[in-house]
Design a protein that fits this description.
By secondary structure, this protein is α+β, with helices and mostly antiparallel strands. The chain has a domain of about 200 residues: Jelly Rolls, CATH 2.60.120.620. The chain is built from 25 helices and eleven strands. The protein has a six-stranded antiparallel beta sheet. It has a three-stranded antiparallel beta sheet with strand order 8-7-10, with no helix packed on it. Helix 6 packs antiparallel against helix 8. The longest helix has 19 residues. The radius of gyration is 26 Å and the shape is globular.
Length: about 575
């Protein structure tokens, strides 16, 4: 076919797409782009088709070309921003959106895209502002209504439930909106209503794993022993979906039911014989459960060569004291992901066990672990405690976290709208800068010190309240790490008197390996909790608490705020 003009190429591609021949349509536009590399409309059309088939990398490249050839075009700029957002590059997308703000600020689509990008980079107030702009311009804008409802629940806004109801009027078949409504019902105190909605979602959309996790969490909070029943029922309805047993196993393992998790993975191996991931899961969870022979047999035959496999097998080799083999596996993993926190955490343990002098460099330099007074006005801690007690009254033990007993606040604490929490956030940032000033010198090879001079911000943030329950054995945090940050933390707001007596009850143990490794390594440092003090340490250090027992009630209360520190530039 002798096509000459860009318009002819675009029309030809549309015809191919309409006939269902998307691959040929895409190939035609690629050929047209070669013939007319400077044509912005062709580039934009190629980008739109790539977006439809989920090739966001190619789409972003085409939109960037369209924007370069026609810089003033608002549509091309917004399309590139959307593609960048899909690629989880929302900070870049925001840069483009700010460039066209003067021309595009009143457009509903612009407001919706800007709101979504702001939400993804952790700027909820900014996200709310731009979603509101979009909704003002188009009250029926589904994406903006949905995004604004999500921001409302994340910020603890009183009208979150009403916002989900409004969005459901526009899109009554949207499962994610129904899940948001269930979550809003729970926050509002209607736990039974939340369970009814969650159960309906799981029955109608058994492959929707976020709903399965939420429903399972509600059952756990209610004290039901079989709290992962929703996964089992979903797998029976959708036996061809591998995501259901994968997350079922992870959910069980997240609360120390590792043997049951291994059994779920083993059953899935039979149904998905060509999927080596389930063999990996069975090996990981059976090893954690102490079923050495079972795990060893799988590692010996596992047909999977990935960094993830290397890290998990290294963990297995640490248990058997095969330190050289573990170290080689960790080297392999770090070759692919040089700054992976989980891998560095295990490397630190291997170096300690091997009495390698690099263990001191990694975790034992003076200043890496600090307990500092919070830089705050008098009375802020007491005021924050009163506010947080109200939040904990409607919170539960979370799925898949280190907490054993007690409650943890939902969502990101410092995204909420309460002014007192904003003040606490600022106090923490000021204390962080004092921590930075007492760190060792910048070191480009160190997973934390390489970031000594870069801007920092907080990612996740939450509060934990313990009352000495834990099923009669006491509440505690099992040893764990936070692999998404560079610095981990614990701000002590309420400390029981028992913590200052014999036995180091509820103390923070930094550097003690997790229980599943079966190692007799003591913590590098045990920190006595002190009200108004902030513990800060590298995220590559495993940390947990000793058990905190005692009578239920206010006299046994222990309350903390914790967060992850990340680099502000991502």
């Amino acid at each position: 076919m002798n096509l000459k003009t860009p318009a002819e190429w675009i029309n030809h591609a549309r015809q191919l797409e309409a006939s269902g021949n998307v691959a040929s349509a895409s190939a035609a536009l690629e050929e047209a782009r070669e013939a007319h590399p400077g044509n912005a409309t062709l580039a934009n059309s190629a980008g739109n088709l790539a977006m439809k088939v989920g090739d966001f990398v190619r789409a972003e490249r085409h939109f960037a070309s369209a924007r370069a050839n026609e810089p003033g075009n608002i549509e091309f700029a917004m399309n590139q921003a959307i593609a960048l957002q899909r690629l989880q590059r929302s900070r870049e997308a925001l840069g483009i959106l700010r460039e066209i703000e003067t021309k595009a600020a009143s457009l509903p689509k612009y407001g919706s895209v800007r709101g979504s990008c702001a939400r993804e980079v952790g700027e909820p107030a900014e996200a709310a502002k731009w979603y509101d702009v979009a909704i003002a311009g188009n009250p029926q804008y589904k994406l903006a209504l949905h995004g604004r409802a999500r921001v409302a629940i994340e910020r603890g806004e009183a009208d979150a439930l009403a916002r989900f109801d409004r969005a459901l009027q526009i899109a009554p078949g949207d499962a994610d909106l129904w899940l948001g409504k269930a979550q809003a019902l729970e926050v509002a105190g209607d736990v039974e209503g939340a369970r009814v909605v969650a159960q309906q979602i799981c029955e109608q959309a058994p492959g929707y794993t976020e709903a399965l996790k939420f429903h399972s969490g509600l059952l756990l909070a209610a004290g039901e022993e079989d709290f992962t029943a929703p996964f089992r029922k979903a797998a029976a309805k959708a036996p061809q979906d591998p995501n259901i047993p994968a997350i079922h196993a992870d959910t069980l393992a997240g609360l120390d039911h590792t043997s049951e998790a291994a059994d779920v993975a083993a059953e899935a191996r039979k149904r998905f014989a060509n999927e080596p991931y389930f063999a990996l899961l069975e090996a990981v969870h059976s090893g954690a459960a102490g079923e050495w022979a079972r795990a060893e047999a799988i590692w010996g035959s596992l047909a999977l060569d990935t960094p993830v496999r290397a890290v998990h097998e290294a963990r297995h080799r640490i248990r058997s004291k095969e330190l050289e083999r573990a170290d080689a596996l960790l080297d392999s993993a770090l070759a692919a992901n040089p700054w992976d926190i989980s891998t560095w955490a295990l490397r630190g343990i291997v170096w300690r066990l091997s009495e390698d002098e690099r263990a001191q460099w990694l975790h034992e330099q003076a200043g890496l672990v600090q307990l500092r007074p919070l830089v705050a006005r008098d009375g802020l801690v007491e005021d924050a405690v009163a506010q947080l007690r109200e939040l904990h009254a409607g919170s539960a033990q979370p799925l898949g976290q280190s907490l054993r007993g007690g409650t943890q606040t939902r969502g990101i604490l410092f995204h909420r709208t309460e002014p007192l929490l904003a003040e606490l956030h600022e106090a923490i940032l000021a204390t962080l800068e004092e921590y930075r000033s007492d760190l060792p010198a910048e070191d480009s090879g160190h997973p934390l010190l390489r970031h000594r001079e870069t801007p920092w911000s907080l990612a996740g943030s939450w509060s934990v309240r313990l009352t000495g329950g834990g099923g009669g054995e006491g509440d505690y945090h099992t040893s764990h790490i936070h692999p998404q940050g560079i610095i981990s933390s614990a701000l002590y707001l309420v400390v029981p008197e028992a913590a200052h007596g014999e036995g180091e009850l509820g103390w923070l143990e930094v550097g003690r390996p997790p229980p599943d490794l079966g190692l007799d390594l003591p913590p590098l440092r045990s920190i006595e909790p002190v009200e108004g003090r902030l513990a800060l340490f590298p995220s590559t250090l495993y940390h947990g608490t000793t058990r905190f027992g005692g009578a239920e009630g206010a006299e046994a209360e222990r309350m903390t705020v914790a967060f992850d520190v990340v680099t502000s530039n991502g």
